[in-house]
Every structure is written in structure tokens, then in C-alpha cells.
Specification:
Elements lengths: L13 H9 L14 H5 L14 E3 L6 E3 L34
Antiparallel strand pairs: 1-2
């Protein structure tokens, strides 16, 4: 977030940040996490907003629902975080073209 405006940075700044990161010998690798999708869509999720617009997930029967925040993350996210950052208790096998370490 931009500390002056409180708004998420534009994607346009990514190239400039990547140049800074690539030129820093202390940076081994990096990853990106997006702003929440609600901000991209302009949905005010603050308690004061009392809006019915939200992002929700539900089970197939739609018996259970929950409001969520959706973020995009670089595929290498867990490779660039602190060791032991992710604590996995179990995994569900997937047929997607990527794997999570």
C-alpha cells in the first residue's frame, strides 16, 4: 500500500520495483501478492459500509457460506518466504499443473 494515500500500488510500479530488487545483492528472490480482489472491484468491506456486496465461498449445497478475501500470489511464494513459514497438516491431491511444496 502507498503509505501516503492508503491505496494499493498500481501494477505499473512493478517493473520499477523489480529493477530495484534485481539490483540488490541482498535479495535472493522475491514474489508478489496482489491487493485483495474486493479492493480491485471497489467493494467496501469495512463494518461501517454495511454492504451486501461481498466475495463469498459456499459448499455445493450452499448450506454453508463465508465471506472471504481473494488474493493472487506468485507461484514461487513459498520458495521465497521464511523457512517453516507454511505448516501443512494434510494435503488434498490435485490434478492441476502446479504443485505446492
Amino acid at each position: 500500500r502507498n503509505v501516503d494515500t492508503g491505496l494499493p500500488y498500481s501494477i505499473d510500479i512493478a517493473a520499477e520495483l523489480e529493477q530495484v530488487l534485481a539490483g540488490n545483492s541482498f535479495v535472493e528472490s522475491y514474489s508478489w501478492i496482489s491487493a485483495p480482489l474486493s479492493e480491485v472491484l471497489g467493494i467496501d468491506t469495512s463494518p461501517a459500509a454495511q454492504t451486501t456486496a461481498s466475495l463469498q465461498v459456499s459448499n455445493v449445497g450452499k448450506v454453508y457460506t463465508a465471506t472471504v478475501e481473494v488474493y493472487a500470489a506468485s507461484p514461487n511464494l513459498y520458495n521465497t518466504t521464511i523457512s517453516k513459514f507454511e505448516n501443512v497438516q494434510s494435503r488434498i491431491p490435485n490434478s492441476l499443473s502446479f504443485t505446492i511444496p
